[in-house]
From TrEMBL:
This protein's name: CALRETICULIN AND CALNEXIN
UniProt cross-references to Pfam families, sorted A to Z: Calreticulin
Taxon lineage: Eukaryota, Viridiplantae, Streptophyta, Embryophyta, Tracheophyta
Cellular component per GO, a single term: endoplasmic reticulum membrane
Similarity field: Belongs to the calreticulin family.
Biased composition (Basic residues): 325-337
Length: 350
């Protein structure tokens, strides 16, 4: 299926721009390929475009992979580039930043404070951003952003084929109440012994310990040759610290045989938690949208947008993008945050 749709290029007034995209079925996945991009974005402009998927796509009982690459060819002071998955009917001619979506993913930059990688999921009509602080890339190179969502509600975020973050929807989004909560009514038992070490009851203070002086005369000191007892008095050697003096006597410490560890408030089942086995399931996806905006003259190139149900297809997409960039002479090293190749590990997992 190849669809021609209208994108919107806004510079104070709306100007329609034709955009051609295509989608193809590959195995069990759907790959969406952007084959023409309107590249130049000027001051305070927004570029919006959208592709309709036929038939609609569901990730129920399947791993969802959302992947695309983005390149800002100049330094961006304030801007972003997001991919969105939309459900239900969407008027493509009125598609905009406020159009409801089921999923949003992509970098957002503004000054030195905001360098965020958005991962937003919609659940029962409400949007939930990821709670973790994910950082996006800020250079002028092309970067692949990948989001993987599995049927067990676990997820992974990859940047340039390296895992940036992972976890589960149950803990990293405030969608459902937490399954476990701390028991606020619990108190430490009176017989709870949290002393790791105790005094040795069998240790006895040595006889004469308290009579050991703190200082003693320096045995190496000698009376000066010019010392005159009639004028200077009786010579006495100066005092030095007594190496035998150990301070006030204390019993030795031994391991406490009754030590139970540090007491911690126990976790209990949350009475307000009600599990949803379809927590990971998005509403059937009918549209893929791209939103790019910035407040400074710049060139933006979203080279490819790919969504696949199988991670192998996403892997092939990244390898193809790497090969094409090398052919074009883009050989600058990319910044890597994690030395391990996550996708190889995930293939082993499959």
């Amino acid at each position: 299926m190849v669809g021609k749709i209208d994108g919107f290029y806004q510079t104070g007034k709306e100007v329609k721009v034709k955009l051609v995209l295509s989608s193809t079925q590959q195995g069990n996945g759907l790959v969406i390929q952007m084959i023409k991009v309107f590249k130049h974005i000027t001051m305070q402009s927004i570029l919006l475009y959208q592709l309709k998927i036929a038939p609609e796509f569901s990730n129920k009982d399947r791993t969802l992979v959302v992947q695309y690459s983005v390149k800002f060819e100049q330094n961006i002071e304030c801007g972003g580039g997001y991919i969105k998955l939309h459900s239900g009917y969407v008027n493509q001619k009125k598609f905009g930043g406020d159009t409801p979506y089921s999923f949003m993913f992509g970098p957002d930059m503004c000054g030195t404070q905001t360098k965020k990688l958005h991962v937003i999921l919609s659940y029962q009509g409400q949007n939930y951003p990821i709670k973790k602080d994910l950082q996006c890339e800020t250079d002028k190179l092309t970067h692949f952003y990948t989001f993987i969502l599995r049927p067990d509600a676990s997820y992974s975020v990859l940047v340039d084929n390296r895992e940036r973050e992972s976890g589960t929807m149950y803990t990293d989004w405030d969608i459902l109440p937490p399954p476990k909560i701390k028991d606020t009514k619990a108190k430490k038992p009176a017989d709870w012994d949290d002393r790791e070490y105790i005094e040795d009851p069998n240790d006895v203070k040595p006889e004469g310990y308290d009579s050991i002086p703190r200082e003693i005369p320096d045995p190496k000191a000698k009376e000066p040759d010019d010392w005159d007892e009639e004028d200077d008095g009786i010579w006495r050697p100066p005092k030095i610290p007594n190496p035998a003096y150990k301070g006030p006597w204390k019993r030795k410490k031994i391991k406490n045989p009754n030590y139970k560890g540090k007491w911690k408030t126990p976790w209990i089942d949350n009475p307000e938690f009600e599990d949803d086995p379809d927590l990971y399931v998005l509403k059937p996806i009918k549209y893929v949208g791209i939103e790019v905006w910035q407040k400074k003259d710049a060139l933006e190139e979203a080279e490819k947008v790919r969504r696949a149900r199988e991670e192998e297809e996403a892997q092939r997409a990244r390898e193809e993008g790497e090969r094409r960039r090398k052919e074009r002479g883009h050989r600058k090293p990319r910044k890597r945050h994690d030395p391990r190749d996550y996708m190889d590990d995930y293939h082993d997992e499959l």
